[in-house]
Records
---
Amino acid sequence: MNRIYATRNGHTVIDEMEASTDIYKIISVDIDNGSAGYYQSNKKSSGGTIALNCNDFNLSTLSHEIFHGYQDFYGQGGRSIVNEIEANLFAYSIAKEAGESTKQTNIFAITKGNEWDDCLNSYNKNVNTLYFSPTLNNDAFNYVRDEFHSYSSKNLRGSYNEYPLQQTNQGNRLISKFYPL
Ligand SMILES: [Zn+2]
């Protein structure tokens, strides 16, 4: 947690959340659901719990789940592909500044053998724009959102098939103020 707070973007998020009267808890439990962690909202915009499935020392997992808390804090909580993309981009920025591996925050597509695939290439081009542009590129974001189910390496096992692309309360791109990542 201290290492996240030491980064520019981590500092911003934690300060904003701590200044509110909402309560955010972090617990360590081992839930055999295959995920590294999850965020559970208390609903009614009143805080929530970040559960780390014994990944207490994993910077990327904690950053990812903190950002889900931040989305909830702004009334934009709930499962969706847009929230997953944002949480991964945020965790990327933290890991990068902290000098840790950004591997876990990678949403690029994996090339299947030497197969030439124009769609996969355009997906990766847009992901690249999201990670490396000085400001958030909305067209790239929407492209990645729409193709995430088909191409993201995060969905190789179909873990996100049930997630809608976006919910009605998720119109603002909260990640935009954290650029450049
Ligand atoms: Zn997530």
---
Amino acid sequence: MRVMCTECGQLGRITKTNRMTAGVANLYCQCTDASCGHSWVSTLAYSHTLSPSAKRASDMAMNLARGLSPEAHGSLCHSVNERQQQLNVLAAQELDKPVVTLRRAV
Ligand SMILES: [Zn+2]
């Protein structure tokens, strides 16, 4: 991450990071231009998610499923089972493929 000196516009160096919360940190910065010598504190803050973490996707799906009507939940179960069967077929096809080893000419 690059920080710029707010006084002279030269590149700054982050000398210390104070994590305040999971989404906010204070960055202690110094200008790299010795003739300037400015030092300052900038705040780095989480803004918003562009794509949800895959680590939380299954939790989110479980919570969404719990909020469905019984009919919608049954339809979801049917869809999940169909997809699982497709994945099982694909996994079995992968196991049947011959193992090919490529060797480079020396
Ligand atoms: Zn500066």
